[in-house]
Amino acid sequence: MEELPNQIAERYGRSPSQSARNRLGVIITAIVFGLLFAIWMIWVTITGANQLSPKTTAYELFGSGQVSVTFTVVKPADKTVICAVKALKQDYGIVGYKEVTLPGDASRDGTAVEVAQKVTFGTTEQAVTGLVDRCWFY
Fold it and tell me: For domain 55-137, is the CATH number 3.30.70?
């Protein structure tokens, strides 16, 4: 009488040996996903350390020919960074552009410093806003 439940269990994948195989498969899958997650975290940390995220803090419009943009960027103290600053008109067209160089200090280590910069530049038409577009390492 005991043989019938064992035969049914084996037929439908519930025997002790099949349960052990299933458990091993779950453990291996969990280890693979754990390793993939660790690799992803390392990749995000490494690539995120080399990215700059500038922030526009203020802008001021001076008639139809000039704009002033104030922005901050966190950068390594020893690295030189170039930032693109734009003035835009009503339909988001670029009416002014200037690249600003933020020099690094080679005597300092690579600790992060926040640099504030105010730049004034000319426009070809009436601007409605000014902003820092992006920054990159020189």
Answer: no
